[in-house]
Structures are given as structure tokens and as C-alpha cells.
Design brief:
By secondary structure, this protein is mainly alpha-helical. It has 4 helices and 4 strands; from the N terminus they run E-H-H-E-H-H-E-E. The strands form 2 sheets. A two-stranded antiparallel ribbon has the order 1-2. The termini are far apart.
Amino acid sequence: MFRRNQTDPAPTPSAPEQPETIAIGLDELAALERALLEADRLRRSWHESPPYYGPELITVHDVIAMFYQRAGAASAVQPDRERARLPLYRHEITWLADAIRMMERHWARDGLISDARQLHNRFNALLGRTRAVTHMGGTAVFTPEPAQIPEGVIVTWREG
């Protein structure tokens, strides 16, 4: 019935879960910045409390500074502006959703709202993709993709 002196095997440690990230380009970063700044401007003009993000209570300007630090790290890894990609974490996409709600509530310009909605839709579409993330001095960057494929190597590409 019962066994004495039998020890349970130690539980196997699971690998730490990486947060979901998507790769965005510098043009998308500029559109994200426009949306966040417009929502912040509207929030201040309607005398609402300033937005704070995350448990660290950072402001919209701190968020934008963090994004541009990632952009600087991404440009160090990939100097070509068109190919440079920086990571955007899943929880950071909610900041754009909050900005869209603020712009809709306080009558932002239609062009900004539609651009922000398209950007939000694109970010949600990219969430299905997973990429390897590396940290350079505490800043997350994507590992560079190979510049060329050696001759004679057959490569197949599958989305998703």
C-alpha cells in the first residue's frame, strides 16, 4: 500500500517562457510614435490624468525613448534602414489600442485614427510569428538574418 523511504523524483525545470514579440520596421515605429503622441496630446487637452504604462509607471515619452533605444540597437545589428527590425512585445501592443480608444473618444483626425487602426491590425496579424530574440546590454534585438545563402543549399520558406 505505502512505500517507505521512497523519494519523489525532482520536477524537471521548464524552460523560461519567452514573451511573444513581433518584428516591426522603422516606418511602423514612426507611425506608432505618431499615434501615441496624438493620444497623449488629446489626453492632456481634455485634462485627463497622464497615462502611465506598466508597473514602473513610465510615461508616453519614456515608452517612445525605449522604442528608439531598440531602434538604435537594431540599426547596429542591421545597418540597412529598410531591413532593420526591432522587437515589440505583445503587451506593448495594448498601448496602441489605448491610444486608438483615446483618439476615437476625443475626435482625433481621421487619417491618424485609420493609420493607427491599420497598424494595430498588422501588429495583431504578426503575433502568430515567433522569432528568436537576443539581448544586447539589456536591450532586446532580433538576431540578424543571413545575408546570403551559400550556393548549392536548397531553402524552403514557410510562413507562420
